[in-house]
Design goal:
The structure is a single chain. It is built from 23 helices and 8 strands. Strands 3-2-1-4-5-6-7-8 form an 8-stranded mixed β-sheet, with helices on both faces. Strand 5, helix 10 and strand 6 form a beta-alpha-beta unit. Helix 13 packs antiparallel against helix 14, helix 13 runs parallel beside helix 19 and helix 13 packs across helix 21. By secondary structure, it is α/β, with parallel strands linked by helices. The chain starts with a helix and ends in an 8-residue tail after the last helix.
């Protein structure tokens, strides 16, 4: 111990101010100079107390390993500080972006908050008493308590349930309807002085239903179609069925579509849909009528795209249900739905240029005079519509969620049940069953190959088993994705 004390330099605090020593010691601890400072001149002294001496030893005898570790520690600290600064910068960017979005939203609402249409609307009639028609009737009635909402039905017992118990005992026995929802079987009384008409009759029955009430329909009454599908024999869509059945080619028409289960709409869960019309003003008027705090309504002028996507997604949902019923796994499900989406896009966006090209080869001048009529021979939907709410949005909801009627049909088919038994046990219409054949006829008309949807049509016609259909689809040529 004595030898150790003799080898150590004398503690500097004996000849200097104590605070100055601490400052110098602290400086030496943090800076670690590469050269050892010269020792102070020798002094005669009495050894200090143990505590002071130990602090001196600690400050002046740092190991070589500690000195080597110090640059790494400094780099880590610098990196951490840099990461923290970057994270703060990112948070700031996100905060600014969100604040801009909120300001834009408030500004837009203040400029476009038009409630005059709802204030001027006194009566809305709903054709049909199914689940979605009932949900939309309740939704519109909640928008304005003084609004008269009349449901035109064929079932007197259902009318009695709605008028006396304020509920649709067939589809929503546990949901109370607003008091301003009234049901009737009298078409003339229901349509008298109506401002809007919501059409919720299944596609296959729409023409005959509308023909029976056509004499009571005002030529200027806007029809908002909630029905999705294609008429089996004629391949007509609702935008064609409604004006033709009413005998008025200029009947105002709007199509409402998108991912929307009736039950969730009744429960006022957040939902987003699209209204499509060639008449931009009518689309915006429908938007004002229907949009609320839990229902977002976008507008579109692509009626064809919205209709085709809404019709074909029901057939694709049956295919998705078959995959689920056969327990083919998630890989198969994802591949099938992706393929189905492509098939819908191929058909909806198909434009016939083949004949025009042939004419161009014969006479470029002639094509200028006759091209316009041939350009109508197309579906001509916008690709953005197929990937939007009424396309991909509705497809995902219908294919992946158990509430879907069409998916349920597919699950039971994949499990081995017969189609007739499935349909007889359902109290709602699965539009995809009747639409499947029409879809394939439409695909042949436009020369589009649709393997998945064609397989569904074959299964529904009992000409192909689900297992055989899967084997055939998996045996198709390996081709480039388009």
């Amino acid at each position: 111990m004595a030898a150790l004390l003799l080898e150590l330099p004398p503690p500097p605090f004996l000849n200097c101010n104590h605070h100055q020593f601490l400052s110098k010691t602290s400086l030496r601890l943090h800076n670690f100079p590469s050269k050892t400072p010269p020792p102070p001149p020798p002094l005669a002294f009495t050894p200090p107390t143990t505590s002071c001496f130990l602090s001196t030893v600690t400050s002046s005898s740092i190991s070589k390993e500690e000195k080597e570790k110090e640059p790494h520690s400094t780099a880590v600290a610098s990196t951490n500080a840099s990461d923290e600064g970057s994270q703060q910068d990112r948070r700031k960017v996100v905060q600014i972006a969100w604040e801009k979005l909120v300001r834009w939203s408030r500004s837009w609402r203040s400029k476009n908050n038009k409630t005059d249409l709802l204030e001027r609307t006194n009566k809305v009639v709903v054709l049909g008493g199914g689940s979605f028609g009932t949900a939309m009737a309740a939704h519109v009635a909640y928008r304005k308590s003084s609004l008269e909402v009349q449901m035109l039905l064929r079932d007197p017992l259902l009318c009695q349930s709605i008028n006396e118990n304020h509920c649709n005992c067939k589809y929503f026995p546990e949901h109370k309807l607003p008091d301003n929802v009234i049901a009737t079987t009298d078409a003339k009384a229901a349509l008298l002085d109506a401002d809007f008409c919501l059409h919720a009759v299944p596609v296959q029955f729409s023409a005959s239903f509308l023909e029976g009430i056509a004499e009571y329909v005002d030529p200027g009454l806007p029809f908002i179609s909630l029905s999705k599908g294609l008429e089996l024999n004629t391949l007509r869509m609702m935008s064609q069925i409604i004006p033709q059945a009413l005998g008025n080619p200029y009947q105002p028409f709007v199509l409402l579509s998108g991912p929307s289960f009736a039950l969730e709409l009744m429960n006022k869960l957040p939902t987003a849909m699209v209204v499509a019309s060639k008449d931009k003003k009518l689309a915006h008027a429908t938007q004002q009528l229907l949009a609320s705090s839990h229902l977002r309504i976008s507008t579109s002028r692509d009626v064809t795209g919205v209709e085709i996507a809404g019709a074909l997604k029901n057939v694709l949902a049956i295919a998705a249900g078959i995959v689920e019923g056969m327990n083919l796994g998630n890989n198969s499900m994802a591949a099938l739905v992706a393929q189905g989406c492509s098939e819908i896009r191929w058909l909806a966006t198909k434009i016939y240029y083949m004949l025009l090209v042939k004419i161009w080869v014969v006479s470029p001048v002639l094509i200028l005079t006759i091209s316009s009529p041939f350009l109508f021979l197309k579906m001509g939907a916008k690709p953005s519509t197929i990937t939007g709410l009424s396309g991909t949005g509705d497809i995902m909801l219908t294919c992946f969620v158990n509430l879907s009627r069409n998916r349920t049909v597919g699950v039971r088919l994949g499990s081995g049940e017969k189609l007739d038994d499935i349909l007889s046990s359902m109290n709602q219409v699965a539009e995809g069953v009747s639409t499947a054949g029409a879809v394939i006829a439409l695909a042949q008309k436009y020369n589009v190959k649709m393997p998945v949807l064609t397989a569904v049509a074959r299964i529904i016609d009992n000409e192909l088993t689900p297992k055989k259909a899967v084997l055939e689809l998996m045996s198709l040529p390996q081709v480039e994705e388009v």
